[in-house]
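Why does residue order matter? Because the sequence determines the fold. Keep that principle in mind as you read this record.
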Amino acid sequence: MKQTGPAGKLCPGGRVRRRLALAALGTLALAAAVSLRAAPPDNYEALRLATEAFYEIGQKYVQPKEEGELVQGALRGMMNALDPDSSYLTAAEFQEFQRGKLGPAAEAGMELVFKDNLLTVVSVLDNSPAARAGLKPGDHILKINGQLVRNLTTQEGVRRFQGSAGTSIKVQVLRNGLVKPLDLAITLEPLAPAVITSQILPGPYAYLRIPYFSDDTPAKLAFALTDLKRRQPGLKGLILDLRNNARGTMEQAVRTASVLVGEREVVSTRGRKGTSPQTYRGKDRDLVLKTPLPMVVLLDQSTARGAEIVSGALQDHGLAKLLGAKTFGLCGITKVLPLKDGAAVVMTVANCYTPKGLKITGNGLTPDVEGVKPKAGEAAADKPPVDQDPWVLQAMELLQGKGARAAKSKS
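Structure:
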């Protein structure tokens, strides 16, 4: 019941509870509605439960909490419940986010998402501070500078590893297969430009590695392909390595794919029902390999975003076989939506689909051929030389038509 004073006005206690309910209970109702395993309650019931919870917290929690703190906590929880790319930003965080569009002065060099209530490393950039510190894809970050990671959004987690060059950050990580957490230290550095590396292998076959996507990746890829054709006439095939590649925008991916697929469709995006899908195509003038080479793309659990877009386009157009492990499935269109108080929400508004209509977002790509696994008791080297890399050797066999013997093919 409402608490009223003279003339029927709400007394202070009632006003506080009502403001809390109106400001944040819709948040909790929506968070409940995104559950994949249970039907959402009707809106009235969700609001009633949230009102009751806020009342109990306000009246009985061991330490009084500010109204704004509770509302922000609820908003963070709501956005974290949507997907790894959605986040809530306070007014101060939104201002910092806008400044960060120009790029951080220095960073750790890793891609992070807040998934399943854990701040998780998706990929670690080649030769980055995070790589030198010993971070690996799949690590869960438990502490940052001694503080437990709690209720962080993905955006906030990323910002914790950006700052001034020389800044040292201590992290405690939980790694699959290890009983005890690891204590590591990362020193932030300016990120070096992405370098596309290439190598001629017996066959002759060409090997190309794109560590991550940036604005100049399409031009660098075109140059690398042209240079390989000049250095080695008569190439019989190409191995494109997109493992541990999880950085890159859709625009960068479409322009990069254009170098390989020409004017064909690269990716499409679809929002809610009733919104028009958007299709993104390459340009014929960008195509370098006018006569396509047989191609194998290497990918793994740390392949995400732009690398998934390029891989999906090559697979669907029959220009490449995918070899390795299922990708992360982190590909969507996000928008930053400012709120009236200066805060903002970063929200996924559309999912990505391959040219044949396969949903990438949340699903990832399944390789045509699984990558060979280390034998029992045999430890795989972190980064073997290219000509000794088991998946590169397997890709060469696949190009030779022997791939069915090397691994289980996609059904």
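Residues 10-82 form one domain.
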